[in-house]
Write a structure and sequence with these properties.
95 residues; mainly alpha; 2 domains; 6 helices; 0% strand
Amino acid sequence: MTDPETFDPGGRFRAEVAASQLDDPMPGIQVLADRLGLPADQVAHHALVRWMTAGSEALLAAPPEMLVALRAAADAGDVQRVKGITDALLAGWDG
């Protein structure tokens, strides 16, 4: 298992995850599901799949936040942050 601090230096993503616990996405997902005639769990699953694949789509549209952060970390010579960002970009790849 990767050390969380290596994967998310400074804990910004972990803090965002903690803050998001104050919001309940299910009412919005349920409304959308009802209007589309789909089960809410399928809409939630689709939203997660789209979010997880957004990085590759973002490459086609604009400079993704992760690449901007990667360049800033590299420019600053912050090797640990560069490693954390590349680990995040490659998460789930067995490559």
